[in-house]
Amino acid sequence: MAEILAIYPGSFDPITNGHLDLIDRGSQLFSQLTVAVLTNLEKDPLFSVSERVEMLREATHSIPNVSVDTFSGLLVEYARQKQAKVILRGIRAFTDYEYELQMTLMNRRLAPDLETVFLMPALAYTYVSSRLVREVFQLGGSVTGLVPPLVEERLHQKVFQGKA
Ligand code: PNS
C-alpha cells in the first residue's frame, strides 16, 4: 500500500477525548499522521501553542506513527511542504457540516490534489468540543471523561491556580 501522510489540523485548545478518538482512528488508516496546531489563531486561546503541543505530545506518545507540529498561514501550503496527501477532519453533528464543506471546497480549489477525509468520533464524543470543555470547566462543571486526565490537570492549574 502507498505511504500516505495525513495532516490533522486544528486549534486543539485543549485536546479532547473526541480529538484523541479521531487521532487513534486516523493512525490506523494512514502511514503517518501529523497533528498540526494552528499558531495564528484569531480567537483568544486559553492555552498557549506550546502548552497545546505539549499536551498533544503527551496524549499521543504511545501511538508510534503520530507526530505533533505547528503551522501558520495556509493549511494547503503547509500540506504541500510536508508532501501530505490527506487532510483529516472530524465531523460530529450536522452543525459541523457547513463549516467543513466551505473549508474543504476552498482547500480543494487551492490544492486540487489534496483530499480531505472525514471521520466520525465515537458516539460518546459527538457533543464534545474544546469550546464547551473550556466553558464548563471555567464555570465549575466537571469535564472528567471528556478530556484526558493530563488535560484536566492542566485546566486546574490554568484556571484555579492561575499558572501561565
Ligand atoms: O479546530 P478548528 O479551529 O476548527 O481548525 C480550523 C483550522 C485550523 C483547520 C482552519 O482554521 C485552518 O486550516 N486555518 C489555516 C488557514 C487556512 O488555510 N485557511 C483557509 C481554510 S479554507
Share of helix, binned: 40-55%
Please summarize the sheet with the most strands. 5 strands, parallel
Shape: globular
The helix/strand class is alpha/beta
| Bound molecule types | 4'-phosphopantetheine
The radius of gyration over CA amounts to: 16 Å
Assess the beta-strand content as a share of residues. Answer: 15-25%
Overall mean pLDDT = 95
Task: Report the uncertain regions.
Answer: none
* Gap between N and C termini: 45 Å
What order do the SSEs take from the amino end to the carboxyl end, as H and E?
EHEHEHEHEHH
Could you give the order of strands across the largest sheet?
Answer: 3-2-1-4-5
User: Count of DSSP E strands?
Assistant: 5
| Total number of helices | 6
Give a description of the structure:
The protein is an alpha/beta fold. The chain is built from six helices and five strands. It has helices spanning about 15-30, 50-60, 75-80, 95-110, 130-140, 150-160; strands at about 5-10, 30-40, 65-70, 85-90, 115-120. The protein has a five-stranded parallel β-sheet, with helices on both faces. The longest helix has 14 residues, at about 95-110. The chain is globular and about 45 Å long. Bound molecules: 4'-phosphopantetheine. The site of 4'-phosphopantetheine has 9 residues, from strand 1 and helix 4.
